[in-house]
Structure formats: C-alpha cells, structure tokens
Design a protein that fits this description.
Elements: H1 3-24, H2 51-59, H3 61-77, H4 82-102, H5 111-129
C-alpha cells in the first residue's frame, strides 16, 4: 500500500478509535480525557442483546483500531524492516497494557488485549511476508 494511503488510513482509524473510546466509555476517571465532561453513550448499547458483540464494541474495538493505526504508521516509518517493526509494535503494546496495569487512570489492563495485538501482528506479518500487502 502506498505510504500516503497508509498515513491517511492510519489517521482515520486513530481518530475513529479516539471518538469510539470517548463515546463508549466513562472517561471521567481517565487522565488523558480529564478535560472532557463525563461523556458516555454506553447506555445506547443496552438494547443490544448479544453480549459478545457488546463486549467487542466496548472492550476491543478501540484497541483494534489504534493498533492497526499504529501498524500503518510504523509501516511508513520502517517499511523495509518487517521484523523490527513488528517487534517494536509488540513492545509498544506490552508497555501500553503494562502501564494500564500499574496506573488504572490510564485504562484497564486486559490480557486479551495483548492476545489481540499478537494476532493482529501475526496476520500482518504473514500478509507482508507473502507480499499481499
């Protein structure tokens, strides 16, 4: 994929992740969003009867979006270094989740997030090695 398209898609995904996070979570206790009032549209999801779908939307969609966005940015910066790029992203994910474990105001630590990041990296690594992307 062309670098400009990666930057554009990555930026759009990151903005979408931020908006989704602000709309779907109680952000009043999160330091990064402390300048916003309590904005939460979680109650709009109460009509959704499928628990797994609700859990994905509120728990993993934002993580999925920001991590794919980060992958796109790292691909532009380190386009020829596939292994190094993926290792740096994995380290970033572990640090991000680790900080959430020690500082709850940054977010909620979740081992499943780490598993999600690892799966995303493996999928992109396979696609890059096979020259599909």
């Amino acid at each position: 994929m062309h670098k400009n398209k990666l930057l554009l898609c990555g930026s759009i995904l990151l903005i979408l992740a931020i908006i989704c996070y602000m709309l779907l979570h109680n952000i009043s206790d999160i330091y990064i969003f402390s300048f916003f009032n309590n904005i939460s549209f979680f109650s709009t999801l109460n009509g959704i009867n499928i628990f797994i779908f609700k859990k994905f939307i509120t728990g993993y969609l934002v993580d999925l979006l920001w991590f794919i966005s980060a992958w796109m940015f790292f691909t532009v910066l380190l386009s020829s270094e596939i292994i190094i790029k993926n290792l740096l992203l994995l380290v970033l994910a572990v640090i991000s989740e680790g900080l959430q474990y020690f500082f709850q105001r940054l977010g909620t630590f979740d081992v499943y997030d780490l598993l999600l990041y690892l799966i995303i990296l493996l999928v992109f690594l396979i696609l890059e090695i096979r020259k599909i992307i």
